[in-house]
Predict the structure of Class I SAM-dependent methyltransferase.
Amino acid sequence: MPETAWEWDETLYAGSASHYSVGRWDYPPELAEAVDTALDLDGTGRLLDVGCGPGSLTLLLAPLFEAAVGIDADRDMLAEAQRRAGDVGVTNVEWRHLRAEDLPADLGTFRVVTFAQSFHWMDRPLVARRVRDMLAPDAAWVHVGATTHQGVAGDDALPYPRPPWRRIDELVASYLGPIRRAGQGWLPGGTAGGEEEVMRAAGFTGPTRITVEQGMVVERPVDEVASAVFSLSSSAPHLFADRLPAFEADLRSLLTAAARDGLFAERRRDIEVVIWRP
């Protein structure tokens, strides 16, 4: 492992876009309702979703605004977002291939700017400062934090076995090594914390925190859990190079043996919404 600090590169999620729709849970309608109520939205203004990926949050919230813009640095993610927009009939979103660090990029001002499981990949002090200057009066920054590929750990009885996540991690490590991979680099300590300090230094006040309760038990077929694995930066398909077929075969063998009748069950995690004001 090199001793240089991790740097973003465009391969971070290479090959993962098509797995998102299969392996990650959609954000629930209750999340849109919570944001709508907390921000007293009235159908006007514009939404900017930064690091939008395949549009999971963008498409949920876009109907609450006149227009929306989703930006992402991964072209495949944007292609998937466009496909999903067509599937659900959302037509008021513009998709832009753009890194957050390149904002404002002449995009104008916004009533709400959202980050869903994306801010930790960015130059956070720089992005926070630039986004602050893009917010209209009385606007808000909304951070959505939720693990959407994996449920709550526990030993409570479920109708099917839980996915064997520890053994999955061990299998990934047997192919990629014990240090977490991300793009062309490594993240031995995981992604950065200290978000509140970053936000306050950039001139934001708050935060206001809202919890969107979930907790329901959902069934998950083997294909869904396999796609959940490939949707992660730490096990994105490109990382396995020419060993990808062997890894996928081993992964599916592990999952098939651990499932019952081809199914797993998990309890969905609550979703935390963190709202900051300039």
